[in-house]
Design brief:
The protein is built from 9 helices and 8 strands. The protein has about 220 residues and is an alpha/beta fold. Helix 4 crosses helix 5. The longest helix is centred in the N-terminal third of the chain and has 18 residues.
């Protein structure tokens, strides 16, 4: 068995055992964050039947995934990195999910491009949950207004996404995200990475973005 598949199974078992005490019947989906890794590292996971993969850069994703997605239409490709408006046309064509919607200009551009392609992308609004100057995301005070705008322009917003502050206990931030999500009646939460996915899972994350613990350290 390939190491990446072994790693994925270990993570899945950890999550199952961690959530069994909470009686959560639905396990979060794991997005295997494959940015910078070659397709040779990814294929064993695809062969194993894993469906959700994440990339941070549109150009890299186009080069890696265009052919594979034609051959395996059941795969879900998630855009996780900051999306520039000039890359939206290509992103909408290739990706199934966008996790990093963080401003109205980007929202409008996605709306225009998906209408041209007659395609509905599933989208997460990125929330700057720690109010950090260096991070993208909608401030929680502006969330309801921004969410209403997205609905007006016919975006399929399925949930919220966050990157909690580094070196602080993420639990309080994940808990706050769960409450925000419930307040606008969304079903999905994209939060938790290699360092904190168990904490995120316990706080009702439905998508975990895990790279290093599956693929190893990036060179």
């Amino acid at each position: 068995m390939h190491k990446t598949v072994q790693n994925l199974i270990t993570i899945e078992n950890e999550i199952k055992s961690s959530l069994s005490e909470k009686n959560l019947d639905k396990l979060p989906k794991i997005i295997a964050v494959s940015k910078t890794f070659s397709i040779e590292n990814i294929l064993p996971l695809i062969d194993h039947g894993h469906l959700d993969f994440g990339e941070n850069k549109v150009q890299e994703a186009i080069e890696k995934w265009t052919d594979i997605k034609k051959n395996k239409p059941s795969l879900n490709l998630h855009m996780l990195g900051k999306l520039q408006t000039n890359k939206v046309k290509s992103a909408v064509k290739l990706f199934d999910y966008i996790h990093s919607l963080d401003n109205k200009k980007l929202a409008k551009k996605i709306s225009i491009e998906q209408a041209k392609l007659n395609k509905k992308i599933k989208i997460f609004i990125q929330v700057n949950i720690g109010n950090e100057d260096q991070k993208s995301g909608i401030n929680e005070d502006n969330l309801i207004e921004f969410y209403s705008y997205c609905k007006e322009i016919h975006l399929d917003i399925i949930g919220l996404m966050c990157l909690p502050p580094v070196n602080l206990n993420p639990s309080q931030y994940f808990n706050k995200m769960n409450l925000l999500n419930k307040s606008i009646e969304l079903n999905h939460l994209s939060m938790g990475m290699s360092s904190d996915y168990l904490v995120a899972a316990k706080n009702f994350a439905t998508y975990l973005r895990i790279g290093t613990n599956i693929f190893g350290i990036r060179s």
